Amino acid sequence: MNEKLQQCTDWNVYKEIVEVKCNNPHAVLGLHEDNGNQVIRVYRPEAVKVRILDEKGNNEYIMEQMTPEGMFGAYLEDRKYDEHKYLIETSYADGTVLTTEDAFSFDRVISDMDLHLFAESNHYEIYKKLGAHVMTIDGVEGTLFAVWAPHARRVSVVGDFNCWDGRQHQMRILGSSGVYEIFIPRVGEGTIYKYQIMTRNGEILYKSDPYGNCSELRPSNASVVANLDKHTWNDGTWMSKRRKKDRVELRKEPMSIYEVHLGSWKKSDTDPNGFMNYRELAHQLAEYLEYMGYTHIELIGIAEHPFDGSWGYQVTGYYAPTRRYGLPEDFMYFVDYMHQHGISVILDWVPAHFPKDANGLGRFDGEPLYEHPDSRKGEHPHWGTYVFNYEKTEVANFLVANALFWIEKFHIDGLRVDAVASMLYLDYGREDGQWVPNKFGGKENLEVIELLRHINGVVEERDPGAMMIAEESTAWAGVTAPVELNGLGFTFKWNMGWMNDFLEYMKLDPYFRQFNHNKITFSMMYAYSENFIQVLSHDEVVHGKCSMIEKMPGYPDDKFANLRVAYGFMYGHPGKKLLFMGQEFAQFREWSEERSLDWYLADEEKNRGMMNWVKALNEMYTKYPAMYVNDYDPIGFEWMDCDNAQSSIVSFVRRGDSKKDQLLFICNFTPVWQEDYVIPVPCKGKYTEILNSDAAMFGGYNAVNPQPIEAIEESTHNKDYCIKVKVPPLSAMVFKFDYVESPKKVEKKDKKEA
Predict the structure, then answer these.
(1) SS3 for 58?
(2) Topology, domain 254-347+393-411+425-500+512-553+576-623
(3) Are 450 and 475 in contact (CB under 8 A)?
(4) Using CA atoms, how far apart are residues 418 and 420, in angstroms rounded to an integer?
(5) Domain range list for the chain
(6) Is 528 helix (H, G, I), strand (E, B) or coil?
(7) Residue 70: which of 97, 48, 51 has the closest Cα?
(8) Between the CA of residue 701 and those of 608, 666, 725, what are the distances in Å?
């Protein structure tokens, strides 16, 4: 062996390389300077010959085999090469010859500032650094791989490109950050890879990329190199308008949300798994949403997940749209197409927990990393999942950046944050002895509070107009209050209390509703405590809970009438709206992710009537500002009569910012016909029926009020005026009117006093 080559080689590092235990292979491998000369070393196990070529592929040097394990080197007098501007040609005994640039000759890409911000939880675009990123360095095309694994003894990138051999591309650690990186030339988009991790006790793990942007289709679970810059966006006008909005304006806009699981909305006839592509789904869904009058779509199960039955709530790829429906650029096309058709896109986001799959985040580098090391804080006993370690800054940064990733990189308009209550309370789903109090002895998770405020504050600052929606099932105060007012900073909150009370009420035989009248009126006691969304979600039509139509009591006609009045009341109630797919046409079966919705029902008379009813509600909802502009202002709602429990009829007014086109709702929750029923009204004038759930086109008996009704001056329920209407059984009616100021009454003076 060349004496100079031997003398300038760090044989301790060499030993770690051949034992595949090295976290700094660049210290030996690649191009190095030695007293004005150059040294090139490569590690090529099983190679029989290695040559150095110039950039054009011309033969320059045959490298000397330094060790039997496959270390090759060349000592070059003077400075022959400028950095990585050379090629390595490797020949094997079977005749295979591979030529590529030297991966170990490239300088590090991730800067100290990147690492500093990451450690502070303030690197809002860390996803552009960690993960796999196609790039060109000095004219050399390849992929930068970077991963955070601070407890690892060694990390390698493995894939088809190196025969899944962890010896080939051992990564270098960047200082004490725990971040490993390597740039691998000629590895590009579509390459399948994993991280091979040697733990401190010598165990070998194969992990998917936590920051990877694409995955194999389940059950395979390797990551796939993706290029997120391929799609040309055409929603510039949409995004410009979005950036000009704030939380106040968002509260004043209509939101009729269609909650969708893409894999079961419709099944493909050609795909062996039954999955439609994001692109064909975009066209079919946009057409349907426009027809039905929805303004928003909420997607469940988009982040990559291994098990279909989890619906996407057991996430392994937080930075990857699921491969079930196509590639990342296909999902970008989906969002783009929705925007071009005036539809906002909301994603379900799951920062509360993650599964224990071997390829996922759990025990990522052999020790608790993303999860809290104390099982009392790091596991959900009922769900069988890990809980994020919110105390660790790098984990917090993973979640903050992930929220921004979907909003900024995929133009998502809002995130519905799943299971917020499980994050906020240390004792959530745990028995005594299974949880640890905070430093003040309470059950509030202080780190989560700060994290949620951080996420919501950053989203509002960087991406005004993007929504953060909390699925929070308790009475936690200030969920939608701004961060600067010590709130959690969410834009909206799911109204779980209203949903539970309302469904319990609607399930009752109409006779018993009179004894439970408070279940439909109580929600107004807290309606303005948060910015609520009224929801009838997927959780309510699974696991033996029955479909919406089957929750309703009575014979089939009664069930449909009950559901129509339920939806009518829901749309009239203050708050934005959400219906899960299939509810709009009264699907009889519970939802299952394994099959398509029962679309044949849309051709059945009663089901078609229900679809027409929801369509009409959406059209009314978006047409009349009284339905939405004052959702969160008490001026927007007033009970006319909420006390008639015996008749189970409620009436109320919805007001916009104008005296014109105010709306009167009348909801009859019994199968009893009411003739000339007295409804108090706020003013004189004409009341014109614009919707009636009993109309024939909705599946009713057409007991409508075709002519405007003139208010009469007759005091009732502290109102000076009323109307007398026929109220069909189990019906919801809506009347429009213009508010007219009533003349002030002048009290007559006694003649003797005059």
Answers:
(1) coil
(2) TIM Barrel (3.20.20)
(3) no
(4) 6
(5) 3-103, 254-347+393-411+425-500+512-553+576-623
(6) coil
(7) 48
(8) 15, 17, 16
Q: What is the Cα 71 distance to its own chain's centre? A: 48
Neighbours of 636 (CB within 10 A): 22
> How high is the pLDDT of residue 754?
41
- Mean residue pLDDT of the chain comes to 95
Q: Which of 16, 348, 408, 418 is catalytic?
A: 418
Phi first, then psi, for residue 119 (nearest 5°) are -65, -25
418 labelled catalytic: yes
Residue type, 359: N
Question: Which tens digit of pLDDT belongs to each residue from 259-270?
Answer: 999 999 999 999
Q: 50: how many CB neighbours lie within 10 A of its CB? A: 23
Q: Are the C-beta atoms of 72 and 52 separated by less than 8 Å?
A: no
pLDDT at 751 over 80: no
Convert the pLDDT of each residue in 408-460 to its tens digit: 999 999 999 999 999 999 999 999 989 999 999 999 999 999 999 999 999 99
Q: Name 43's bridge partners.
A: 71
**CATH number, domain 3-103, options 3.40.309.10, 2.60.40.10, 3.30.565.10, 3.90.1150.10:** 2.60.40.10
Decide: helix, strand or coil at residue 396. helix
| Sheet containing 30-34: order of strands | 30-34, 37-43, 71-76, 64-65
Q: Taking the C-alpha atoms of 411, 450, 147 and 204 in order, what is their torsion angle to the nearest 10 degrees?
A: -130
Residues 337 and 331 sit within 8 Å (Cβ to Cβ): no
**Whole-number Å distance between alpha carbons of 79 and 432:** 69
Running DSSP on this structure, what letter comes out for residue 563? H
Contact between 532 and 495 under an 8 Å Cβ cutoff? The reply is yes
471 is catalytic: yes
Q: In Å, what is the CA distance from 167 to each residue of 22, 45, 102, 156, 222?
A: 10, 8, 15, 7, 19
Instruction: Report the C-alpha gap between 333 and 411 in whole angstroms.
Output: 11
Q: How far is CA 606 from its chain centroid? A: 34
**What contacts 56, CB < 8 A, 6 or more positions away?**
none
Can you give 16-50 as a three-state secondary structure string?
A: HHHCCCCCCHHHCCEEEEECCEEEEEEECCCEEEE
Q: What are the angstrom distances between the C-alpha of 485 and each of 318, 417, 446, 482, 528?
A: 30, 21, 17, 5, 16
Partners of 139 in the β-ladder: none
Quote the CA–CA distance of 487 and 460 in Å, as a whole number: 13
With contact defined as beta carbons under 8 Å apart, do 488 and 449 qualify? yes
Q: Which of 16, 460, 471, 641 is catalytic?
A: 471
